[in-house]
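Duplicate of #3305? Posting structure anyway:
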């Protein structure tokens, strides 16, 4: 039930858990109406032992550090540091993973 749109490239580290209906989208479009048909690929890199909750979306160009947690339903638009938890739309830092 996940969707991996991978024209920009996707790397997933060992031990990563991916929940139901997760979207990894490596393409973006231009902002101006005349540029919206132009596609801009960028890779998604997910570290080791990451936990991505159900219905989360990670967009082009994002790197998720080792041992991070992406909350269910989060939309990740910027890099996530290792051993941190992010949640929300757009995803924001919640706290550090201490164990």
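Output from current build:
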């Amino acid at each position: 039930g996940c969707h991996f749109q991978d024209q920009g490239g996707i790397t997933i580290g060992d031990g990563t858990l991916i929940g139901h209906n997760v979207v990894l989208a490596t393409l973006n479009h231009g902002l101006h109406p005349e540029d919206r048909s132009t596609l801009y690929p960028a890779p998604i890199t997910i570290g080791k032992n990451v936990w991505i909750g159900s219905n989360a979306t990670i967009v082009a160009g994002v790197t998720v550090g080792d041992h991070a947690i992406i909350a269910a339903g989060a939309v990740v638009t910027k890099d996530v540091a290792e051993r941190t938890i992010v949640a929300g739309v757009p995803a924001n830092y919640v706290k550090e993973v201490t164990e």
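Confirmed duplicate; merging threads. The radius of gyration is 13 Å. The first strand starts at residue 3 and ends at 5.
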